[in-house]
Amino acid sequence: MSNGPDASARLEAWATAIASASAPHETDFAVHTALTYARGGRGRRALVRRAPSVTAGSGGELVTTVLPALWDALAASCELLKSALGSPVVANGVSTATLLLAVHRRRDGAPPAEGTGGSAPAEPATGGGELLVLARAVAEVSRRLQAHGMDPAAADQAAASAVAALHAGRDEGAGAFVGLLAGEGRDASGERSAGTPRTGLRRLAARVPGLRRSARARGR
Fold this sequence. Notes:
- This protein has helices spanning about 5-20, 30-40, 40-50, 65-75, 80-85, 95-105, 130-145, 150-170, 175-180, 195-205, 210-220, and strands spanning about 55, 60-65.
- By secondary structure, the chain is mostly helical.
- It has a two-stranded antiparallel sheet.
- The model is unreliable at about 55-65, about 115-130, about 185-205 and about 210-220 (pLDDT under 50).
């Protein structure tokens, strides 16, 4: 991967944030898997081909791995996610539970319920509810997770948690993170882009539990 150090910092910060929200039991290898995926090539192919379950622990129990499939699902949904994150329709914070409800109502043919989760006013252009744009993104990420063999309920939960975290940090480089997973922005010059990752990491750390220690270490 020819991304500069700033891109790596962004990947590391957001990989930890998304893992904390969607797969907290996998945070120890979130950075490694995200960097491997973003580099592409043989490493990415091996990561994506990895079996959905691995043995771990002294008893050899099966532990489901979510992150490799999640990075792939987010990358494949890049354009839809960036459009949703940049939409002025949903300006306020949304929770995982609110997004799950919106997705389920969308599948049932009903608009998302109004006035839930501090959401923005309804979207008049589509006639749907105020969360329609985000519900589409969650449904697409979930669909791609299910294509990796994930249980539908677990896929919905992981997708909604990831999109909620991305939406909460949409002003701290969430869209750029998804783009890096998809192979965008590989700048060989390594120049710092607008909105430095370290500043974004500090703001993100205040919102996402588990990042404060990482932010303090990087700020030294």
